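pinned: reference chain
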Amino acid sequence: MMTDTDIVVIGAGVAGLAAAAKLRADGQDCLVIEAADRIGGRAHTTSPASLHGAWIDHGATWLHNAERNPLADVARATGETIIESDTARRWRLQIGTREVTPIERHSYDTAWQEFDATVRVRATAEPDIAFTDAMRPLNGNPWAATIELWEAAQIAAADPTRLSLRDWFLNDLDGTNLIIEGGIGAFVARRLGPAAGNVELDTPAIHVDWRDSIIVDTPKGTIRARAAIVTVSTGVLAEHLRFTPDLPDATRAAIAALPMGLLTKIALPEAEMGRLGLPENLSLRRQVVVGEPAMSFTAWPLGRPYVQGFVGGPTAWALSRAGAAATEDFARGQIRALLGADADRALGPAFVADWARDPWHRGAYAYATVGNADARAVLATPLADGRLIFAGEAPCTNGLAGTVGGAYLSGANAACTIMAALSRG
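pinned: its structure tokens
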């Protein structure tokens, strides 16, 4: 069966929804197809019974850089309940199971100053180097490994030995971080879904022929369009979506240079033994040594009855390969390292959100490898005289790569480019 449309949007994550909304607002005929059984992509909220029915975001959790994040404006305009995360959150830094002393805290703050004066400055110099290599001037600082773990493995979800220092710098998160009451995924479905129009779910694109018109093969039939916006992850582009003719060498190289990072979320619910004496919204981190895997945690986020933890980078990938039980065991060990030998007994069975095992994403978000900070711009370059465009958090070039705000802008911009190309005939 053949379906005809002017523009086909492949993927109903934030980028795809933003693109479709822009196209429909401008009166364009478009069709959105989505491989999964829901919209939102890596913005996904559920309320699992294992977490006492409390909501949790599997992926995107914050609206970062709120001062220039378009989704923050959407949230305000639609009357969402918005919480400034950093204002609501308390922080506890530990060495082992104890909180740091004022002198140790000063040492930690000084280490960040040294980081800013060396690593950030090096990011603007030639040639590009790995994040780990940029950290070498801090060797011997007792907090260097802790900073590297936080910035590379957790924030960038990346392998620090492969992460481009320049890409990290260009997409460094600053500004205000917002939480939407009820979850980012639910917000995306509620506020972006209707404007995008009808989405064909459970409809993965298998093959895209872009020789003359655009022909997209799916298990449910074939779609013929004048143009296409492809918003799937680089993990899917690298392994699961075929193109005829093959994509240009530069585009394929850009996809390879933007591997998917991994940030896995683990939530352990409150059991009958109480809340471990921890206040709500308490972020817990501890000092680590070089090469030591570790997690950060938030206790009872916004009062919800669970402890939420994050593990990223190579450790997250290794745990994913080992399975959910190994991931839970690791998280419990990390809680014991922070709170004492019996602390994890106060928490119930874990909920694990592992994006590596999601066949429609194959990871959390993309990072650029060393020497390839320009790969995002290359991937964003239109093909076929502007009739084929890649959009999403990976080809985002405005400093918001890896975020839902960046994906939104990328999708909206792709829609504008497609419409301009079609208007030229």
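why pinned: The chain is about 35% helix and 20% strand. The two ends are 27 Å apart (CA to CA).
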